Amino acid sequence: MIDTQTLKKRDLYLNKLIAFRDTEPVKIVTGIRRCGKSSLLKLMVAHLKEKGISEEQIIELNLESYAFKKMSTDDFYNYVKERILPQKRMYLFFDEVQRVTNWEDAVNSFRIDFNCDIYITGSNAYLLSSEYSTYLSGRCVEIKMLPLSFREFLYFHNFEIRETKSSLGGTRKRLFDKNGEEYELRDAFGAYMRFGGMPGIADVGLDQEKVLVLLDGIYSSVVVRDILERESRRGQKRIADPVLLRKIILFLADNIGSSISVSSIGNTLVNEGLLEDGKRKGIPSVHTVQAYVNALLESYFFYEIKRFDIKGKEYLRTLGKYYIADIGLRNYLLGFRNRDNGHALENTVYFELLRRGYDVAIGKVDHAEVDFIATKVDDRLYIQVTESMISEEVRRRELASLQKINDNYEKIVLSMDGGIDSSYDGIKSISLIDWLIDE
After folding, report:
1. SS3 6
2. pLDDT of residue 423
3. Domain 11-144 has what CATH class?
């Protein structure tokens, strides 16, 4: 049982649930394992109680509990039915609902038979997000949850950002812990880029050995339960080689932000000696590699991003890129060492844009590339990400693709070192850390 007194707020996601409160669709919270889905349901329960909903109107079930191990669909339905209060609006919360065979029959019946509002979390081991709509006859809304943003990371680790005036009249952001000790924001960002944003890290502290144990558990549960077990449960044998799966995970983790074709992954693994050739028998087929990559996308371990031709205004079928859900998992897999920091920063920016509600693509303009085109209904951002803008050569390179775009949407370069100016030809140069902590 999670103690609601110790729960940290995740307002970004809680506000989404609140916005859908008392609407017909079933609210489904999805995301990589251990990113905080169960805690979010607890936060919603606490919110309802604060708003005057009585304890008796709320039914909570964590179906991973041993107490419900043998629960059938009929048991599930009757358990809820016995606790329904006539003439009252009921709020139903089901964690790991897929543990009950044919759970969807019961949930669909709850919607029809009772005056209720339903919230569930879904384990990727049992059901893919793409399948919920089918099971619930299209009457569902998905809340996609991610690991902690940098701002959430600071809050979870009990840091507070304060804005103070400098002696020259400007302002600067400073970081303090709960004891009033001051820290550099850059150092805290370094810890975030090292350990990642899994909420459980706040419980073990920023101790590398403990963090590695936690990340190992998350990695194992995603790979073993969400991918390998799911395949065997479905009676499918497409993903039956744990060694090949790990090699593909390592390859994608090592190549975040790089252009990759699925057809080249098998060949690259062989060429780099990661798979044995065996007279070319060792090269997995394109279909096999695609199945493994799809499984990693379905478990929210990696995310794929497509290319968009800015001038042609169309998505391209050429090479896409992959980003890993949590940078700490990447460091766990590849080791804590300095490696292509530029791509790691891109990874962080990509997920921050998703959190802020943007649809994100890679931009192509002539033969140049824009790291991200971020689009909302009435808004668009063009973003380049680089470690530093101090070097004139880097500045020229990073600005070149943005300068080719001739519409009036905002164009931004995010970097760890801003450079000489705050803008170049109308293109803003912004500190990446400031952008991440900006509300």
Report:
1. coil
2. 77
3. alpha beta
The Cα 97–Cα 139 span in angstroms is 16
Q: What residues does each domain of the chain span?
A: 11-144, 148-298, 340-439
**Virtual CA dihedral for 199, 203, 206, 212, nearest 10 degrees?**
-80
- The token duo for 306 is 């497509």
Which residues in the chain land under pLDDT 70? 1-5, 123-130, 133, 169, 232-237, 273-283, 309-318, 338-339, 418-421, 439
User: Would you mind telling me the total number of residues written for the chain in this entry?
Assistant: 439
Instruction: Provide the pLDDT for residue 312.
Output: 58
Q: Angle 341-355/327-334 helices, nearest 10 degrees?
A: 150
What CA–CA distance (Å, rounded) separates 93 from 121? 8
- Amino acid making up residue 110: F
pLDDT of residue 1: 42
Nearest to 419 by CA among 437, 439, 399: 399
β-strand partners of 260:
320
Report the distance separating Cα 78 and Cα 279, nearest Å: 60
Between β-strands 171-176 and 160-165, what pairing exists: parallel, antiparallel or unpaired?
antiparallel
Q: What pairing do the DSSP bridges indicate for beta strands 160-165 and 58-62?
A: unpaired
pLDDT at res. 319: 74
Residue 230 CA, chain-centre distance (Å), reads 21
Looking at domain 340-439, which CATH architecture does it have? 3-Layer(aba) Sandwich (3.40)
For residue 48, what are the contacts with CB-CB under 8 A and spacing of at least 6? 57, 58, 91
What is the DSSP secondary structure assignment for residue 260, as one 8-state letter?
A: B
| 218 contacts 33 by C-beta, under 8 angstroms | yes
The runs of H, that is alpha helices, within 196-278 are 201-204, 208-220, 230-233, 242-254, 262-271
Beta bridge partners, 385, equal: 414
Answer left, alpha or beta for residue 240, where phi above 0 means left and psi between -120 and 50 means alpha: alpha
CA dihedral 32, 34, 36, 37 (to 10 degrees): 60
Burial per residue of 250-283, b for 16 or more beta-carbon CB atoms within 10 angstroms, e otherwise: ebbbebbbeebebeebbbebbeeebbeeeeeeeb
Query: According to the model, what pLDDT value does residue 346 have?
Result: 96
Q: What's the confidence (pLDDT) of residue 283?
A: 65
